[in-house]
Structure formats: structure tokens, C-alpha cells
Amino acid sequence: MFSRVLVANRGEIAVRVIRALHELEIEAVAIYSTADKDSMHVRLADRAVAVGPAPASQSYLNIPSVIAAAATTGCEAIHPGYGFLSENPAFVAACEDNSIVFVGPTADVMARMGDKVQAKAELARADVPLVPGSDHAVELAEAHELAAELGYPILLKAAAGGGGKGMRIVDGEDELEGDFRTAAAEADAAFGDASLYVEKLVRPARHVEVQVLADAHGGVLTLGERECSIQRRHQKLIEESPSPGVTPETRDAMEAAVARAAKMIGYRNAGTFEFLLGPDQSFYFIELNARLQVEHPVTELVTGIDLVREQLRIASGEHLAVTGRAERSGHAIEIRINAEDPTRDFAPAPGLITGFRPPLGPGIRLDTFVEAGYTVPPFYDSLLGKLAVWDEDRAAAISRSLRALGELSLTGVATTQELSIQILRSEQFASGRYSTSFLEDSGNRLAVAAE
């Protein structure tokens, strides 16, 4: 096992990883921008290194600065968290060039899976179902041809990244040219690559993902699925496990497909295979997130497995203690608390947190980095924390989540807390019969109710 690891991130995930390192008696080295010099992750780490000014491009995304911080402090490994450099093959290669272990997959696997078109081709060879669409990046003329063949609506997606960037739903031919140019420009701005590919839009659909761990010795462990259909602008707000929309037979088939694919592509460390699930239980691979996911706590709660500690053990060369399918019990729900104003189309809401009191009690976990007196900077993601709740069944988990949200007190900035309460109280969520269009269909009504 390692003796010193650099955490190449900020916010709640940096705090989460530092705590796991300390539980394994590993020294943690933090990095920080000038905007984060007083942040919690800096104080919790054993050492901290400034890597640049506030803009992420000059600090957390600055590969030479991050590598130098690890090298000068004698770190043996780097944990990237999620976001920033976590899925950047050039960063992984830089770690390898400097004899630093990257806690994640290899640069080769990450590059292959980061190219959505190549990833789909490799998953097809593993006999994983795919959404009908292009098998390569397309120009506008070919997009017109494919759309006519597939039938509208279609989905334009960036070939080089995810998170809703460079993604557009096109409902008819008269919209295609404008949406194509807009999506390409957004993809180029976000990923430095304007390439797009086309998929048939599955609607209504659920967004379901399967967590996997794989070691360097061929061992693979699947840890069940997470339901991620409550989204705004293709970014998740509430996740749960197990999914109320997946039958046992579909779950078996999805986990078998993921295990098969992980072995075929030579995957290593933690990863998440994302799928669209149709009303008839048909499922289609959409992408592989070659990193830890924001919503990993729900999987940890139902399996009892600490994914960050497992990541570190795998990266140090250890075998997985268990392979196959992880045992799981109960039901877990995660609610993201974002500094956003739902009444203003989820506009970011940076500012001073004047008061903070976390919920307590059995089955409650809050991963956060905020505290009273902390100023939320305008430079980064709006995520303040993740409230994760476990109970014996789904109904009890919903009730416990509502109790925890009611106890949570966070004042000074607008957040998604009240909107989450309205979602959990809705008939659609309670019944489990919802899809990725949930907020689109009822978001305005819920936002008004949350005011």
C-alpha cells in the first residue's frame, strides 16, 4: 500500500478521499487554488500545495503544476476524484512518465473509452446492446441522412465528453442544422473537440448505471445498479439503488454485460457503465465513466463496500477480495445539494454560507466541505454536498430522506434542498414510475412549490 498520496481535486470529493486515506493510515497531500486556500480539504490534509490562481484552467487543470506538486512532496500516487483531470488520458500518461501511480484505469483504456464512438464499437464486440445510431463522428450532411433513417427525435452527443455538454435533442428536420452547430460549438468549448455523433432518442427512458470494480489480475466485481433519471440539463439531482424500474431479470443481464465488457476491454479500478432503459426493459449502453462517480455513496450504503479504499487497494496492486456480484441489502437514496436557484432555471448561487447544521441520526450520511462562514466561489461546480440515506426498503428510505432534508439547515445561498423535498413528495417519485423527463415535465410546478 502507498504511504503518501496526492488528491488532485477540491470540495467534497477531496474531503472524501482524504478521509479514506487517513483511515488506511496514508498521508494525504492536497492541492488548492488561491480561491480555495481556506477550504476544508486543505485543513484536513497532512500537507497542501498551491497550484495556481482561481480559474480551474490555471490550477486544478494545470497538468504540469499538479504533477510537480506530487513529485516535490514525494507522493507515490494521485487520486483524481471526479471531474477536472479524472478522465484525461494525457494526465494519466504524465503520471506514468513521472513514475506516479494513477488511481484509475490506464491511459490507453481511458482514451479508448473516452472516445464515445470507439467505446460503442468495443462494447458491441462484447455483445452489449447499443442505442441505434452512428458508429463514428458525423458531419451535418450525414446527420441529416441518419436522422431520416432512424426517425425523429434524435440525440446529438459530443464524441469527446459527457455531463450534458454538447448534447441536444432534435425533434424535427427543421431544427437539426441549428442544433448541430450549437452542440458542436459547445463540445469544442468544453472538450476541445467539436465532433458529434447521432443516436436514436429512446423516450420515455430511464438512466440506469452499473458500478464495477476490476483489478489488474482479471478480477471483476459488479455492485448493482443506480437509478439516475432525476436530472436537470442532463445532470443528476437524485440517485437511488436499487432502481425501482429494473426487474431482477434485467438486473442480471445488465451486470453480466458489464462484467463481460470490463474483462474484454481490460478495465482496471472503479468504473461505471451507463445505460438507457426502455419501458419494455430493453437496455442500451451509452457511455463508460472511467472514474469514481459523484453518486458512489448509494452503492457503498447498499453493499457495505468502501469504493475509495478499494480504488487505492487496486491501484497498489492488490487483488479484489471478492469477485462476481457483490451482496447488497436495503435501499439507498442520494440527494445532491447544489448552490443553485431552481426558480431561476438553476442559476449558480455563489456567496457566503451564514449558517450550517447537518442532519443526524441512523442511516444518514452527508458528504460535504461546507461550514458556516464559508464563501462559495463562482469558479467551480455548484455541488455543496451529497445527502445519502439508507433504510431497509424504499418507502422507509424516502421517509428518512425527507426527515434528513427537513433537519438540514443551510442558509445564505439558494440551494436545491426544497426542490428535492418536493420531488421526494411527488406521486411519480413515490411510485417509482418516472423517467429522465421528470423535471422537464413537472419542474416548473415543483420549483414554484419549493419557493
Number of strands: 23
How would you describe the shape? globular
Number of helix segments?
15
CATH architecture of the largest domain: 2-Layer Sandwich
Give the helix proportion (percent range). Answer: 25-40%
Q: Which ranges are low-confidence, i.e. pLDDT below 50, for 5 or more consecutive residues?
A: none
Jot down its keywords.
451 residues; alpha+beta; Rossmann fold; Dna Ligase, domain 1; D-amino Acid Aminotransferase, Chain A, domain 1; nine-stranded mixed beta sheet; five-stranded parallel beta sheet; 23 strands; 26% strand; globular
Which helices and strands appear, and what pairs or packs with what?
Elements: E1 4-7, H1 11-23, E2 27-33, H2 40-44, E3 47-52, H3 63-72, E4 77-79, H4 89-97, E5 101-102, H5 107-114, H6 116-125, H7 140-150, E6 154-158, E7 168-170, H8 173-191, E8 196-200, E9 206-214, E10 220-232, E11 235-241, H9 248-265, E12 269-277, E13 283-289, H10 296-303, H11 307-315, E14 324-325, E15 331-338, E16 340-341, E17 347-348, E18 351-352, E19 355-357, E20 364-368, E21 375-376, E22 383-391, H12 394-407, E23 409-411, H13 417-425, H14 427-431, H15 438-450
Parallel strand pairs: 1-2, 1-4, 2-3, 4-5, 10-14
Antiparallel strand pairs: 6-7, 6-8, 9-10, 9-12, 10-11, 11-15, 12-13, 15-22, 16-17, 18-21, 19-23, 20-22
